[in-house]
Amino acid sequence: xxxxxxxxxxxxxxxxxxxxxxxxxxxxxxxxxxxxxxxxxxxxxxxxxxxxxxxxxxxxxxxxxxxxxxxxxxxxxxxxxxxxxxxxxxxxxxxxxxxxxxxxxxxxxxxxxxxxxxxxxxxxxxxxxxxxxxxxxxxxxxxxxxxxxxxxxxxxxxxxxxxxxxxxxxxxxxxxxxxxxxxxxxxxxxxxxxxxxxxxxxxxxxxxxxxxxxxxxxxxxxxxxxxxxxxxxxxxxxxxxxxxxxxxxxxxxxxxxx
Amino acid sequence: xxxxxxxxxxxxxxxxxxxxxxxxxxxxxxxxxxxxxxxxxxxxxxxxxxxxxxxxxxxxxxxxxxxxxxxxxxxxxxxxxxxxxxxxxxxxxxxxxxxxxxxxxxxxxxxxxxxxxxxxxxxxxxxxxxxxxxxxxxxxxxxxxxxxxxxxxxxxxxxxxxxxxxxxxxxxxxxxxxxxxxxxxxxxxxxxxxxxxxxxxxxxxxxxxxxxxxxxxxxxxxxxxxxxxxxxxxxxxxxxxxxxxxxxxxxxxxxxxxxxxxxxxxxxxxxxxxxxxxxxxxxxxxxxxxxxxxxxxxxxxxxxxxxxxxxxxxxxx
Lengths: 258, 317
Hints:
Structural class of chain A: alpha/beta
Number of strands of chain A: 10
Number of strands of chain B: 4
Strand content of chain A: 15-25%
Strand order of the largest sheet of chain A: 6-7-8-3-9-10
Distance between the termini of chain B: 15 Å
Strand order of the largest sheet of chain B: 1-2
Number of helices of chain B: 14
Helix content of chain A: 40-55%
Order of helices and strands of chain B: HHHEEHHHEEHHHHHHHH
Number of helices of chain A: 11
Largest sheet of chain B: 2 strands, antiparallel
Shape of chain A: globular
Radius of gyration of chain A: 19 Å
Largest interface: A-B, 38 and 25 residues
Structural class of chain B: mainly alpha
Shape of chain B: globular
Strand content of chain B: under 5%
Oligomer: heterodimer
Distance between the termini of chain A: 33 Å
Radius of gyration of chain B: 20 Å
Order of helices and strands of chain A: EEEHEEHEHHHHEHEHEEHHH
């Protein structure tokens, strides 16, 4: 079943067409990777899907609902949550606070109830804290809960980002270059974490340049170049695709992988 | 330890009129207290929601004018014929808060469209517009002649006429505002405000409706500033357009920044120091100018050596 369907999506910045007539679908339960050279329009497509940019044309349907015209926060409430290419955290807050903010959609407190100090607010707060600790535990950052996000080592910051997104309980998690800048062992443990995320029943749309990771975790790969799709298939098919090799992977790639 | 200190601090504050036999000092404390309430409200917007409003005194002044007018009663022939009889002061003060809250709602909606430096300019312009209305709409506000003989707050037969009563009233309102802000800050709503100040794109990505929480911060903040303004109007019992002077906003900003924005105690610490300092210096200074020179130098030193404010600097140790 298609969870997310992009139909003929175009995004323009003035005269520049960043994404042209892009169509693809993410099926429920799969890990789909979007690859392509820098400037191919991957992040732009992400931004258009999640409501940060208004597309010039095209349709986006997520679990049966059209997303055009919705605000990012409304899209998140439907279960579509993304992370950012550049590390993006609530830097001046503790790791625990970061997750508590991520749990926003799970809370039901209204401002009036908060100011009146109604008992259910305190009850919900302690439930949210317990849940936040569970999320931190899941990514292995429980012992870091009181540390400022800005003070965490890079690899842990990237994990915290994913944890914030997971706290929002997504059906579809969109990861924008989650392992860029990580060393090989950090990448390997991130790949293991991604497998666990899949087991939670979360569908993943991944943008990534680390081909070892892409080929290792994806069920399907879509390759973009200059705003359009040049290939769509399993990792094995993509690695052999002459168009992909010419535009992105390069001739030498075959030898590196095999 | 911490709870003990709080109780001690509150005990000293509450018992102060009993052992401090100095009407002038009590007056200074009342006015400082009113400004601390205003500074606490500014802190919600500036320190937590991250919006620098240099027009905060507009809410203070709107609260003061609305409360004074309703308690005095007024007649209008333009834009439509309306006669408002004098209402009890407590009701007038509530209406003053609501009027300020509405102005906050309006400013919050604008803040959503214009951010950063542009919002600062819009907020300054807003006060200026409100001040010009207060100066020129003589039929309603008496213009520069000021609203006089504003009645003091009365509950039943008890009239808040003398200084000790007013002192306790201000202290009570300040405590209520502190508790409300504290509850908000340590809640889902407060976290949403902090999130949009820290990293707005990330906040929206996890489903936080930025407009909603920006407007909420502005409305609560403005209503509290309006309450401070209403307290002021019924304490000094005269309101003129000078209540909208830029210097009052600056005073609030100084209180928040030196005390530590985004901390609960910051506006109180900053407010007590920079509210009482001019009076303390006046006694010591050899020349009237020296008072403000020392004030300025102290402020520069605080900002230079404790850029995040006094309270965060103390907490770190």
